[in-house]
Each structure stands twice: as C-alpha cells, then as structure tokens.
TrEMBL record:
Residues 3-130 form the Gfo/Idh/MocA-like oxidoreductase N-terminal domain. One of its GO terms (molecular function) is nucleotide binding. This is Predicted dehydrogenase. It holds the Pfam family GFO_IDH_MocA. InterPro entries: Gfo/Idh/MocA-like_OxRdtase_N, Gfo/Idh/MocA_Oxidoreductases, NAD(P)-bd_dom_sf.
Length: 324
C-alpha cells in the first residue's frame, strides 16, 4: 500500500486532500494539521468528493510523530516561514521517499542550502508545486515554441501578488524555455513595501523584469486591482491569454499572422491535479513539476532580488524575505 502524507490542511492543503481523494492508485492517506478549525474544514472538503475504493484509509493527526514511520510521498502545504523546520523534523523522525513542496519554498537563502543538503544525504526525491507545467494548454503551447530562438513573456495586472505568485510565472518561462539561468532587475518595483493579505507577510508591486538564458520577461502588478493577462511572443507566434476567463487569442506565422480566438479550460484547480501527481510519482518515480534543484535556481535569485529591494527601501541589511 502506498502511504501518502499531507502536512498542512489549510486552504491549499485541503484542496490537495480533495485531489488525493480522487486517486486512481491504491493509497492510504495521513493528514497532519494542528489546528482544529483547519482540520474540520479539511474533513468536510474531503467528504465532498465521491467515495473512492482506491483509498484504503484516511487518518487525521495533530503532529508529525503520529505519522507512519515510512512514507512514499509527503506533500508539505504549510506557509514558507515554518516549512524548513517541518522538513527537518520530518526527515529526523521518518523515512521519506518522495516530497512535494509548496512555494515560495523558504524565506532565507540559508534554508534553501540546508534542505538541499538534507535531500542529498537522504536520497529523497523532491519537486516544487508550480502547476502550470501540468496544464494541457501550456504543454501544447510549449510544443509549438520549443524550437524558437527567443521568448518574450509578459504578465500584466494589478494586486495579483508579485511576491507571492511571481515565481509561478518565472517558472512558467523556465518550463517553456527548458532553462534556469535567471537574472532579475528590481529597479522598477514601487518604492514601498506593501502589507500582504496574510499577517506578518509583505507584498510588492511595480515592474520586475529579467531574463532566463536568452529569453526575457516582464511582470507588472499595479497596487490597485486589474485583471491579469499573459502574453507570449516568439518568432513563430504571439499568444494573448486570459486564464481567468479561459480565453486565448493566438496569431501564428504559419497562418499569415491571422488571429485565432478560442475558449477553453486553461487553469486546473489543485483538487484536479494532486491525484495525477501522485499517480505519476508512484508509477514512474517522476512527475511534471520542476525538481527541487531546478526550482532552487529560480527561487534564490528571486528572493535575493526582493531582499535587495527591501534593503534599498528600509536602509538596513536583511536576510529574511517575509513572503509565502
């Protein structure tokens, strides 16, 4: 029996749990959530999914100590500020084969290095949950642009969480380009550090730009809400994408640059993806997500760029970037 553990069953974690409830492979589920309210919500959301004979059992715990000694896959869906501590405790007390981590991974560069060493010492495989790589629309788009010389990638909108979500888009370009050589320019971020919706965290607005290898990106977030759009341009096509409304407008060189519009499902919820991830890992020992090593090459420069901006605004040396 494949033993799957979920640590953190809050808003996102409970959606992972709904995905696990749809598993097509036989699994047992163990959930660690110390807060009663979050645990109750997770149980309720799990029960919303149709009963599945592939689930041999599900148990809810308050601590890592209560988990089985050996686990096939562990999903850690906690906030970034405690994630490193939880990973260290987990490997100290349990045997872990595979790990899926939520982003932003950690808030300090030191934590990235410590977890990298821990993964090397234990031999555990680890992936980071940047789910756009799993969306069929983007897998098809990547196939169309895989041989292009350069990609221009642009995100525009307002109040979409540049600190919290910027890495999702940077990873998206890394996915399209099969490259991780990231350089970031933070000169055009707003000279103000914003309070995030979650207490004790911060957010950023303005323009963040850079390159991954030969490919360029701009991420713009205004401080006031505006719908988010994504534009991907290469020498063979231009694609304008409105994910929220499932709308795409694409002009291709092969079609004399004539615009073609389509309405289709672009974004998939976590509750529609986690079962696929688990099946991929159990049956192939791999999955569509970036590995820890691939993700770290993007996360560290991103964290460093935001830290440098905070230092320029606050006038003090910082080592911790309070985003999640």
């Amino acid at each position: 029996m494949n033993k799957i553990a979920l640590i953190g069953a809050g808003q996102l974690g409970s959606r992972h749990l709904q995905g696990l409830a749809k598993s097509n492979v036989e699994i047992s589920i163990e959930v660690v959530e110390p807060f009663d309210k979050s645990r109750d919500v997770a149980k309720q959301r799990y029960e919303e999914i149709e009963s599945n004979q592939k689930i041999s059992s599900i148990n809810f715990f308050e601590s890592i100590d209560e988990l089985s000694d050996a686990l096939d896959v562990v999903i850690i869906a906690t906030n970034a500020d405690v994630r490193s501590k939880i990973i260290k405790e987990l490997f100290l007390k349990k045997q872990i084969k595979n790990l899926i981590l939520e982003k932003v991974l950690f808030q300090t560069v030191k934590e990235y290095m410590e977890v990298e060493t821990l993964l090397e010492e234990t031999g555990a495989k680890c992936w980071v949950n940047h789910p756009r790589r799993m969306f069929p629309f983007y897998q098809s788009l990547k196939n169309e642009i895989k041989n292009c010389e350069q990609i221009s990638y642009m995100v525009q909108g307002g109040a979409w969480g540049l600190g919290c979500n910027g890495l999702h888009f940077i990873d998206h370009l890394a996915f399209f380009s099969d490259d991780t050589a990231l350089k970031i320019d933070n000169d055009f971020l707003h000279s103000h550090i914003y309070e995030a919706k979650r207490s004790n965290y911060v957010e950023f607005n303005g323009l963040l730009k850079g390159r991954i290898g030969n490919h360029i990106f701009t991420l713009y977030s205004d401080k006031e809400y505006a719908p988010v759009s994504l534009t991907v341009t290469t020498d063979t096509l231009t694609a304008f994408i409105d994910e929220a409304n499932g709308y795409a407008r694409i002009a291709r060189k092969s079609n004399d640059w004539k615009w073609e519009e389509s309405q289709q499902k672009i974004v998939y919820f976590q509750s529609e993806l986690t079962n696929i991830l688990i099946e991929q890992i159990i049956t192939t020992a791999s999955c569509d997500l970036p590995t820890y090593d691939e993700a770290m090459k993007l996360h560290i420069p991103f964290i460093q760029a935001l830290l440098a901006h905070m230092e320029s605004v606050d006038g003090q040396v910082l080592t911790l970037c309070p985003i999640t």
